[in-house]
Write a structure and sequence with these properties.
It comes from Acinetobacter wuhouensis. By secondary structure, the protein is of the alpha+beta class. The chain has helices at about 10-60, 140, 175-180, 180-185; strands at about 85, 90, 105-110, 130-135, 155-160, 165-170, 195. The chain is built from four helices and seven strands. The chain is elongated, with a radius of gyration of 23 Å.
């Protein structure tokens, strides 16, 4: 009788178990890698905007009138749809919408964080700024969010101010609660479980 060629059931089961173990390790590691990469991109954009705000103040003696639209022009010279100059809001990554968005970045006046610096409002002095990079997650936008990015759940949101505050948290960091003059003057504007960056 000839020897049969092929794999036994035991050999196939061992291969399946090995593949399952590798997948159980690789998938969570990949998700964490993606979270760290998007958080790094948001931090980089916040720091770039902060640097441009300081340049604006050096030329104009105030942050008033800052519009970062020039930073987000495409190859044709038109402003990217990711930056709304009127609202002083940026979505990351650039030129992406819907569930693919990872962060929403807001630039506001430091003294009155409900107002933008590029407006003509007489109530703002333009002597300070606040930048909030909010993760596009159900943590920040609620369980009913249909355009939230699932990979962003559990990722950091960032806050930076002209007074030196640089904090981040994985808990909710919303516009309504964070961009509030009283909150920004508190010891922990990003919440109790926040950390500096």
């Amino acid at each position: 009788m000839g020897k049969s060629k092929g794999f036994t059931l035991i050999e196939l089961m061992i291969v399946v178990v090995i593949i399952a173990i590798l997948a159980a390790i690789a998938i969570p590691s990949y998700r964490e890698y993606v979270r760290r990469a998007t958080a790094s991109q948001a931090m980089q954009e916040v720091q770039k905007l902060a640097e441009q705000l300081e340049r604006h103040k050096a030329r104009n003696f105030s942050y008033l009138g800052f519009n970062g639209a020039y930073l987000y022009k495409n190859n044709l010279g038109s402003i990217s749809s990711s930056y709304d100059g009127t609202k002083a809001e940026l979505t990351l990554p650039i030129d992406v919408a819907g569930k693919s968005k990872t962060y929403m970045v807001y630039i506001r006046d430091g003294g009155n964080p409900t107002k933008t610096l590029n407006g003509t409002d007489d109530t703002i002095r333009g002597q300070g700024w606040v930048i909030l990079a909010m993760a596009n997650s159900t943590v920040n936008l609620g369980e009913g969010c249909t355009s939230c990015n699932d990979l962003q759940n559990g990722n950091y949101s960032f806050l930076m101010t002209s007074t030196g505050v640089k904090c981040k948290t994985k808990l909710a960091l919303t516009i309504e609660k964070t961009l509030d003059a009283t909150n920004l003057k508190s010891i922990k504007p990003c919440g109790e479980k926040s950390e500096n960056w």
